[in-house]
Amino acid sequence: MNSIQTEAKNFNVDKIKEKLDPKYGIFQDLNVFVFIGFGYLYTYLKYHSLSSVAISFAVGIFTLQFSILTNAFFHCCFDKKFSKIPLSLDYMVDGDFAAATFLISYGAVMGKATFFQLFFMSFMECIFYSLNYKLGFEKLQVDDFGGSCYVHSFGALFGIGVSWLLYYDKKSKLEANPCKRSTKMTNTFAFIGTIFLWIFWPSFNTARIENDNEDKRYRAIINTILSITGSCIGTFITCYIFHGGKVEPEDMLRASIAGGVYVGGSSVMMNMPFASLIVGLFGGVISTLGFECLGPYCGKTCKLFETSGVLYLHGIPGFLGAVISAICVACMKSSKWKAGDIDNREKILHKNRSAAKQAGYEILVELITIALSLAGGIITGLILRLPACGDNKNYYMDDEYWKEENEDEESKVMVPT
């Protein structure tokens, strides 16, 4: 409240509105991206669609709230100075990024975890996510604006760690479960989520860019759009060839938007449009092949039964996105940048680092992310295996946790004439 009063003294109403409106619009775009995009994307399971939307909303909101505390705590730790949290829309935006990270992890255990397990998983993930993000962003000075590393890699691997610890010995209940299937109707609803993610992905990749740096924001928007258009076409072509002239709906639901992950960290640095288009095109191909080939292989050999294929939409694309970002940084030569972009280059190469040294830091942060996310997921999974944490009795079913009207009884109700 005091900060708001201070602002009111220093600025007139018009200037306050100019400062507030852009960030609030970004925050609303992120809300649509996170809660409608991921929520409806996960509705493809026939008997679990209600839980997919409701859990994405409820636990996602809890993650947004709790991450404000964890982000502030680790900021104070690395700053070596503890003080009150200065609430602002920047903290809310960071909360949406944390919620997106959890919802990526949720895709790995969707339909299998109880409400308590999911809330506890969110609690633990916020701690590890904030530690990783603040360590990489504030201490090691690696930006990763679109979250290829901090959001997608971390969320996917954390969820995989939890899923593997909880379900590696439950093959019979998971592999051939008749409830783990989709229908034409559920896939249609899931496409709503895919389309919302596709539309708002440029907003997600640019939300953390400074408001006064329009050149960087504009470049990131263009590169993200080109990349996700490329991944959509690459996915369609790969599906068409792989399935002999037909398209697999679940591949189109997920792999088609992988381009946004691949350029998450590098979208502010790509000066040649064809580069982002090619990255997205091949990214769609790689993710589609991951869903079709690696998924069954991981189930048989590694006993990894993750529900939504987050490894192929977020994990592998996030890792490759970090590598692409490091390559882009390593190739940054001042002679190849226009005069107006030199300032952007200097902001990317922090603390007077050379291009090669900054690229090394990019790879280091990705390796730290892999280690922390897997460690956090495994620790969380070990705790959730304790008998006191309970277990889901009916996998991929809404019935156990939601009060629903009996459809047979509903069909017998007579409409008065």
How do the strands and helices of this protein lay out in sequence?
Elements: H1 2-10, H2 13-41, H3 49-79, H4 89-109, H5 115-139, H6 148-167, H7 171-174, H8 184-206, H9 214-242, H10 249-254, H11 259-262, H12 273-301, H13 310-330, H14 342-348, H15 355-384, H16 407-412
Helix pairs in contact: 2-3, 2-4, 2-8, 3-4, 3-5, 4-5, 4-6, 5-6, 5-15, 6-13, 6-15, 8-9, 9-12, 12-13, 13-15
What does this structure look like?
With 417 residues, this protein is an all-alpha fold. Helix content is 71%, strand content 0%. The chain has 16 helices and no strands. It has helices at residues 2-10, 13-41, 49-79, 89-109, 115-139, 148-167, 171-174, 184-206, 214-242, 249-254, 259-262, 273-301, 310-330, 342-348, 355-384, 407-412. It is globular, with a radius of gyration of 22 Å.
Rg result = 22 Å
Q: Which regions contain 5 or more consecutive residues with pLDDT less than 50?
A: 1-9, 335-343, 408-417
Largest sheet: none
Could you give the count of β-strands? 0
What are the salient characteristics of this protein?
71% helix, disordered N terminus, 417 residues, mainly alpha
Write a concise synopsis of the structure shown.
The chain has 417 residues and is mostly helical. It is 71% helix and 0% strand.
